[in-house]
Specification:
Elements lengths: L4 H22 L3 H23 L8 H33 L8 H22 L7 E9 L9 E6 L10 H13 L4 E4 L15 H5 L7 E3 L15 H17 L3 E2 L3 E7 L2 E7 L14 H4 L9 E4 L4 H7 L8 E4 L9 E3 L2 E3 L11 E5 L2 E5 L17 E9 L1
Parallel strand pairs: 1-14, 2-3, 3-4, 4-5, 7-8, 8-9, 9-13
Antiparallel strand pairs: 2-14, 6-7, 10-11, 12-13
Length: 392
């Protein structure tokens, strides 16, 4: 990130001056022109305050969120409007650089305004615009007793980011409305600390399913991304978070498995601790988690990070019929229209949202219930997944 910072700053400055020329073409109102630069000045002061706190201090979460939101609103619209201005400048090169035209400046401002409004909606209405994704999967080896069995998958709640009780309760009610047989949560209950769940315990305890609720831990649940006064405090926090899962009715699987039984038949539910590629911690062990699972059992795996699927799950000695993951959030930004999917996160994670299949094995990556960093969503809406298992 440090190596990219100078480039980002230069891009921001270039976009600011470039877009300012378009604004200057349309108006000479000093209030508007000075206001344009005042926004940048306030953001710069905010970042200066953040940096002055130093590494050892507790992260000012609200300030970070405000700066991220302000930066996106101030920077992204200008960047996306630049092709309009650049296109006109190419033609101006062959016309001895006459003054910038009014129409091109108006078009650039219109594009920037459209992007600004879209981002603003993502930060308000988009964060709780829950979308239900329904998937039906057919398997040869599914016990006939589980034909039509339904699973609701949730992931990436990130309770520390929530501020709207009405919005969160809307999502929880939507989950219960589908009356699934089983509810599975694939990690990241909090951003950093177990106490983030304190205001939301009663809300998430309302989730209900006749065959139970099960969960695993995500990378944020271990408290690895914040400062602690001692290692003991960090350990205590993790112990408390595990207790929180229990108090809201979830059975937390920590590199182990359980059987889900129905009418004398059973399927195996396996849960691993977080395992991620690259610099992410590898607490999970599929071998240990599946040690007591029979080779001929139908298996569902909960593993927070989808990179675990290609790295470990596909080639594992035991056939994992269905793996469920989250983690990517779909980067909370992208396009999903008429079967077309795109998000910047696809360049980091080959499996980033939705259903994937290889060698008769399936992976479903949930786009996340909550949000982190950018306090909103745009195009990639918060997800509730309803999976129906069918026997071929």
């Amino acid at each position: 990130m440090k190596t990219r910072l100078p480039f980002i700053l230069l891009a921001w400055i270039a976009a600011d001056f470039y877009f300012f020329k378009a604004v200057e073409t349309l108006t000479n109102n000093q209030f508007i022109l000075w206001g344009y630069w005042l926004v940048d000045l306030l953001l710069a002061l905010g970042f200066a305050v953040l940096m002055s706190r130093g590494r050892g201090n507790r992260s000012p979460v609200n300030l970070i969120a405000a700066l991220m939101a302000g930066t996106l609103l101030a920077f992204v619209p200008k960047i996306l409007a630049m092709p309009v201005l650049l296109g006109e400048d190419i033609t101006r090169m062959f016309r001895s650089f006459p003054p910038r035209s009014i129409w091109a400046s108006e078009l650039a401002v219109f594009v920037a305004l459209f992007v600004f409004i879209s981002l603003l909606y993502g930060m308000t209405g988009g964060r709780h615009r829950y979308k239900v994704h329904r998937v039906t999967l057919k398997f040869d080896d599914l016990p006939k007793e589980f034909d039509g069995f339904t699973i609701t998958q949730l992931s990436d709640i990130h309770a520390g980011s929530f501020s709207s009780r009405k919005g969160v309760e809307k999502g929880v009610s939507l989950v219960n409305k589908h009356n699934s047989d089983l509810i599975l949560f694939t990690g990241d209950l909090v951003n950093n600390k177990a106490s983030e769940m304190d205001p939301w315990m009663d809300t998430f305890a309302k989730l209900d399913a006749p065959f139970g609720k099960y969960s695993v831990l995500g990378n944020h649940d271990y408290g690895d991304y914040t400062s602690w006064e001692s290692e003991e405090a960090k350990t205590t926090n993790l112990v408390r978070l595990k207790q929180v899962h229990k108090e809201i009715g979830f059975n937390l699987l920590l590199n182990n498995s359980v059987q889900i039984k129905k009418n004398g038949a059973a399927i195996a539910l396996i849960g691993v601790e977080n395992w991620g590629k690259g610099g992410f911690h590898k607490y999970g062990s599929l071998t240990r988690a599946a040690a007591n699972v029979g080779d001929d059992e139908f298996k569902i795996l909960m593993s927070h990070d989808p990179s675990h699927w290609e790295a470990k799950t596909l080639e594992h000695e035991k056939h994992i019929n269905l793996a469920l993951a989250g983690h990517t959030h779909g980067m909370q930004f992208g396009i999903e229209l008429f079967g077309f999917q795109w998000s910047p996160v696809k360049y980091m994670y080959p499996q980033w949202a939705g259903l994937y299949e290889r060698k008769g094995k399936y992976l479903y990556v949930n786009r996340g219930f909550g949000f982190l960093g950018f306090k909103g969503r745009l195009g990639i809406w918060p997800e509730i997944t309803v999976i129906t298992l069918k026997k071929k």
